Amino acid sequence: MLSVRGLRWVLTLSFGLLNASCGSRESMGDGSLRVLGAGVVNDPANKSLRFDMLKFGLDRFCEEMLKAGAALKLSDREPVLGRFYAESCQSQVIDEEARKSFVLQYTGKGYAWTNVTGKLGFTSRGLVEYAPDFQLSDGALYVYFRPKSVDAAVFQLLTVDSQLAQAGIAATAGQLSPDEVGKHVLDSQLKRGFTVIRYGNDGRTDFGVGYVPKGEKPYKPFDISTTKAVLVNERTEVHLQGQDYVGPLTVTDSGSALFVNLELDGADAVDYQLVPKAVGDAMLDRYVRSPGPCPQLAPPAFDSSAARGARAVQPVPLPVGQYYLVLDNSGALGRSQPPAAAAGDAAARVDYALLLGPRD
Questions:
Q1: What residues does each domain of the chain span?
Q2: Top-level CATH class of 229-358?
Q3: What is the pLDDT of residue 311?
Q4: Is pLDDT above 60 for 174?
Q5: For residue 66, what are the CA distances in angstroms to 20, 21, 107, 208?
């Protein structure tokens, strides 16, 4: 069985995934770009521009947490290993001479995966205060939101798939609370912050979770040039008997379609579905709170699979509404079945981009 020290290592490794909810750099897709003050020269002394960038960072951070699920990663450029879905997010910009900061209060739930624990399901709430740091680099203005304090972080573990990890938690009952360890790790990971970048006088402004070094941009797996709206452009990893829930994604026009682009490596195939938000919410909640993959709860709006080595590009006309993209590397959904005798984890690494535009 796991020792107390061993359990600390397991939980540190596992809950360290939480850093991306306020941590590791994340690909936000071209849809993260906004125009702030076109024609205005980047100058940290420009109070109006400074306030606009602070507000942009505040709005985007809560927007990503509430609307799309914040991707969780172990480090920069690593695949997504889980997601955090905020159920509430309140924020405030304080731009005073004596105190310049950004206060965020959140609650939510999520899941993560490690090879030690398998899937983890959890809930969390907390309050973080960030201080902005403005830096110029070759005409681009970078704003680093660095934490000043992390208070009232609460972490509750809901489910652990690995029987080994479950045995370790049971063995240390009364000696070490997993919730206390999770809170300690979450506190440290919330100190990673995020970055806002205004590239030049044209006002193009970008957002990246975590620290984006000066001169660099948030990582995106696909180089996309299109008039369509890029909703998401990132990389994930779906482990054997695992799923990933991307969204909800909004279709605002009856003449529009979602264009799904996927490239797969690692596994032979992965299933993907588009499901209405109500169905996706129910599936996500079950996935977070119960061991294993979630079974099909209702017919999907769209169902397909992607094979390793081939790029799948699929336009999907959909009624106006909100949808989840569900990626599945199990036998619970879709058409493909992972090999029964698959050696090791057989994780599926999926690069995906979702675009919204007129139906072709």
A1: 4-209, 229-358
A2: mainly beta
A3: 85
A4: no
A5: 14, 11, 10, 16
